Amino acid sequence: MHLFLNSKQLKAEASMLLVAFIWGTTFVIVKNALADIGPFWFLALRFILAFLVLALLAFKNMQKIDFPTVIYGSVIGLFLFIGYTFQTIGLKYTTASNAGFITGLSVVLVPVIYSLMYRKKPETKTFLASLTALAGLFLLSFPTSSCRLNYGDLLVFICAIGFALHIILVDRYSYKHDPVAITGVQILFVGILSLLIAVPAEPFPPSLTCNAVYAILITSILATALAFLLQNGMQKYSTPTRFAIILTMEPVFAALAGYLWAGEMFSSRGLIGAGLILLSMLIAVLTPRIN
C-alpha cells in the first residue's frame, strides 16, 4: 500500500504544511503591526517588497515573464487580493474567531467549486476530510458555545471564496508558466492594487515602528515570496482540495504559537478541534490523488 504516493507529491504537501506553519506563526506579528500601520499600506509594502526580493534573487526567471504570464498571473492575483482585502475589511466588523472559522470555509468551497468547474465528483474520503477539517476549525475558532454572525462575517465569506478560487486557479494555470515568474506577477498585482487603495484611503504613518518594519520584512520574505513560490511551484504535484485541507493547519500553528510565545491557553474544545484538523490532514495525505 502506498501511503505516500510519490516523492514529488510528498514534497509538495510537506511544502504546503511549511506554508501553513509560516502563515500561522506570523499571525501574531501581523496583528501587532496593524496597530502601527494601516492594513492596505501594510499589504502594499509587504507584497511590493516581496516582489523585489524575488526579482533580486531570481532575475533570470523574472525575464521569462511574457504577456500570457502577466494575464494569468493578474487573474490569479486578483482573487488573492480579494481574499486579503475582504478579510481585512471584515475584521473591522467581526471577531477574529469568526473570521478565522469563515476563512477556513475555503476547505469546503475548494472541492465544491472545483467539482462545478470541472464536473468531477469529489472522492468520498476527500469530502470527509473537508468536513472533518471544518468541524475542527469550528471547535478551534469558538472555544465556547457562543457563536454570533454579523455583517463582517459576510465580508469574510467573500474572502473565503477569493482564497478558494485562488487555490483552484493556481492549479489550473501555474504549471504552464515559470513558477517564479507567475508568482512575481501575482505578488506585484496585489501590491499595486493595495497601494492604489492605501494612498487615498489611509494616512501613511509619519514613522514606521520597529514592530511594523519587522513584520513587513518577515512577512514579505517568508510569508509572501517564499510561501507563494512554494504554492505556485509545488501545487501541480497534488490537488487543490488536498492543499486546502493542509492549509487548515494554519490556525493550529497560530494557536500553538500563541501558547508558546504569548501564554495563551488551549480550551478542551480547542484541543479537540486541533486534533480533528490534524486528522483531516492525515486523511487527505493518505488519500490517493484524483487523476
TrEMBL record:
SUPFAM superfamilies in UniProt: Multidrug resistance efflux transporter EmrE
Protein name: EamA-like transporter family protein
Keywords: Cell membrane, Membrane, Transmembrane, Transmembrane helix
Predominant place of localization: membrane
High-level lineage: Bacteria, Bacillati, Bacillota, Clostridia, Eubacteriales
Top-level taxon of the source organism: Bacteria
One GO cellular component term: plasma membrane
Species: Thermosyntropha lipolytica DSM 11003
Compartments where located: Cell membrane
Residues in EamA domain copies: 13-141, 151-285
Its membrane topology: Multi-pass membrane protein
Family per record: Belongs to the EamA transporter family.
Membrane-spanning segments: 12-34, 40-59, 71-90, 96-114, 126-143, 149-168, 180-200, 212-231, 243-262, 268-287
